[in-house]
Amino acid sequence: MPELPEVETVRRGLAPSMEGARLTALELRRGDLRFPFPPEFSSLVAGRRIIALSRRAKYLLIDLDDGMTMIAHLGMSGSFRVETEEAADIPGDFHHPRSKDEKHDHVIFHLEDEAGRRRVIYNDPRRFGFMDIVERADLPLHPYFRELGPEPTGNALSSIYLATRFDRKAQPLKSALLDQKNIAGLGNIYVCEAMWRSHLSPLRSAGSLVEEDGGPGEQLDFLVQSIRDVIADAIAAGGSSLRDHIQTDGSLGYFQHSFSVYDREDDPCRTLGCGGTVERTVQAGRSTFYCRTCQI
Length: 296
Known about the structure:
Elements: H1 4-18, E1 22-28, H2 41-45, E2 50-56, E3 59-64, E4 68-73, E5 79-84, E6 105-113, E7 116-123, E8 130-135, H3 159-166, H4 173-178, H5 188-197, H6 218-237, E9 278-283, E10 286-291
Antiparallel strand pairs: 1-6, 2-3, 3-4, 4-8, 5-7, 6-7, 9-10
Helix pairs in contact: 1-6, 3-6, 5-6
C-alpha cells in the first residue's frame, strides 16, 4: 500500500494540473471502489473550481471553492495519470509498465482552465481505493481523521509527545509506531527504516524509551529525528514506488533502491562496523526487517 511519501509525491505531481482548474465533470465508470461513491457525487462537484490539493496521513485532499473537500485514498494499487488534448500518453522513462487498461479507469476528472482541457484519470485494478466528499470545516471530526495523531513531518511530533503516548506501554515499539493514533501516516516500510537508523529493536517495548519521570530518553529523541529524516529522504526521492505505485507522470521513484533494511532479509547490515545480518520476523501480520546485532 502506498505510504505517506508516495501520497505526498502524488499530491505534488497532481497540483500543477488540478489547482486552479474548473472541474467541468466527474465521470464515474462504476458505482463503487472499495466503498460506494457518495450519493450524487458527480453532480455535487461538477462546475466547482479546485482551490488546493493537500494531504493528511495517507489521504489526498482536494479542496473545492464551495467549502467542500474531496477525499481520495489510493488503496493497494490506485494511481493517477494526466492526459492532455495534445497527448494521451505521458512522456517519460518507465521502469515498470503502468496500468493503461481502460477497464481499470474508474474515475475521470474533466478539467479546464486558461491552459486548456485535460483529464486526470484514477486507475485502480484491485479497487481497494476509495473517494468521499465532506465539508472542509468538518474534516477534523470525520471518522477518517478524528483519531489521527500528528504528522511525522510537522513540529507536533516530538519526543516529549511520544513519551506521553509510550509511557508504561508494554506494546512492541514497531506496533506503537504503526498505531495511527500515535503518528498519522507512518507505515511499515518507513517504520522499519527509522528503527534501523536509530538502532532500536522493533521487539522492545515502547515504554522502554521513556524515563521513570515520564520524560523522553535520548533514544526517543534519536528515534523522532530518524523518523523525520527517513520520511524527508523518501519524499525527496519521489516515494518508494513498490509494486503497483507510480508517480503521476508514470515514472517510478528511486527510494526503493536506497532501503537500508526493508526487504533485505539475509543481506549484511549496512551499519558501519556492525557485521550483523538483516532478519525478517512477523509482527501483527506484517513483515519486520531488522538487524538484531545493532538494533537493541
